[in-house]
Design a protein that fits this description.
alpha+beta; Phosphorylase Kinase, domain 1; 2 domains; five-stranded antiparallel beta sheet; two-stranded antiparallel ribbon; 11 helices; 9 strands
Length: about 375
């Protein structure tokens, strides 16, 4: 029998904020019966055509509280409408700091566009209706594109993704201002909150086991140690979820999505999101090759061994968090679609810990509860 649902953290204590359990399933601030007409009206205004020419189709969603619709007319223009939730300024991920003065998506979009990072064009913003009309980039994510080509296609696309990430980081480090992203960071407190999120959902809720005594101390000490080491790494602009479902393959190249939670973090963080993707497993030689490609692209003098060690530390923290988050999304949001990706997330943790011999006790403790890590 599954244990009772754990409590959702309360942001009133000054700690990191996390989305509360969802309200009634209204797709945004606008009433459902008005949504179709509003999307058609806004698309018509962008295209200079009568609203009646446009119809809308809801697109497959993810874990976000935002919803997306394709708004198009036969043989004519097509757009993607982002429909905002009732509290659009609140992050889906845990964060802390002052509330954003502007919708984070708009803030970070403007910054990335100013740095020549490919992002979808914004055609219309209607915050009263809770709708943004965006460029329609099609349906081919990086993940989807891998199903239409062999190893050569995979290697080319991932090379492009690493190059784009390196260029993004270099430009952001040269222009480290002008976005909400530079006012929030993966500090030790936020990293440790995510570690505890894993313990609450990925361990206690998923397995029914609540650590106590020496085991609880081992897991707590390991969290402190790993999160402190990651927080001490040099920080710069970090997308936070730079993975195969947030990169679109288009005629103009890769285009970046889902950047509204950007913050300051180590260079390895986005690389872990991309190369330790819970949805796409890459061969280890390719991972090493892409890490070296990144270091060459950014012109880093850091040794590969040092960079790879930090990559493994971030892998442990990030993929434990992902496993816990996927369980949270099932239990709190009623969306079980991410549960099949928990085993790969945990296997990544085991592989990283095998490369960190000093963390052998942590690996053994985790393996005793997660058969995926064996």
């Amino acid at each position: 029998m599954r244990p009772n649902r754990p409590a959702t953290p309360d942001p009133s204590d000054g700690g990191p904020r996390v989305a509360a359990p969802p309200r009634a399933p209204v797709p945004g601030a606008i009433a459902p019966e008005e949504l179709t007409a509003t999307l058609a009206r806004l698309a018509g205004e962008v295209a200079g055509l009568p609203p009646a020419a446009f119809s809308s189709t809801r697109l497959k969603g993810d874990a976000s509280s935002r919803s997306y619709y394709r708004v198009a007319r036969p043989g004519g223009p097509s757009y993607v409408a982002m429909v905002l939730p009732a509290d659009p300024g609140r992050s889906e991920e845990a964060s802390h700091g002052a509330p954003a003065a502007e919708l984070p998506f708009l803030d970070v979009h403007r910054y990335l566009a100013s740095q020549r990072v490919p992002v979808p064009a914004i055609h219309r913003v209607d915050l009263d209706a809770g709708v943004l009309i965006l460029e329609d980039l099609g349906d081919v994510t990086l993940e989807a594109a891998l199903g239409h080509g062999g190893d050569a296609t995979r290697d080319r696309l991932y090379g492009e993704a690493v190059d784009l990430l390196a260029d993004l980081r270099l430009r952001a480090e040269a222009h480290a201002e002008g976005s909400i992203a530079f006012g929030r960071a993966f500090d030790e407190r936020l990293l440790r909150w995510e570690w505890d999120h894993y313990l609450e959902y990925g361990l206690v809720a998923r397995t029914g086991h609540r650590p106590a005594g020496a085991e609880a101390k081992l897991l707590g000490d390991a969290g402190d140690r790993i999160c402190r080491a990651i927080a001490a790494l040099p920080r710069g602009f970090t997308h936070r979820d730079y993975q195969s479902r947030n990169l679109m393959v288009t005629p103009r190249g890769l285009v970046v999505l889902d950047f509204q939670d950007a913050l300051l973090g180590p260079r390895q963080y986005d690389l872990v999101a991309l190369l330790r993707d819970s949805y796409v497993e890459l061969p280890e030689p390719l991972v090493d090759s892409l890490l070296r490609r990144y270091l060459d692209r950014v012109g880093s003098a850091e040794s590969f061994e040092s960079f790879r060690r930090a990559f493994d530390l971030v892998t442990v923290q990030r993929k434990l968090k992902d496993g816990g988050r996927f369980e949270f999304i099932d239990r709190v949001k009623g969306n079980p679609s991410f549960l099949p990706h928990v085993p790969l997330s945990f296997r990544y943790v085991a592989r990283a810990l095998q490369r960190l011999p000093e963390e052998r006790p942590l690996l053994e403790a985790l393996r005793s509860h997660h058969p995926e890590m064996a």
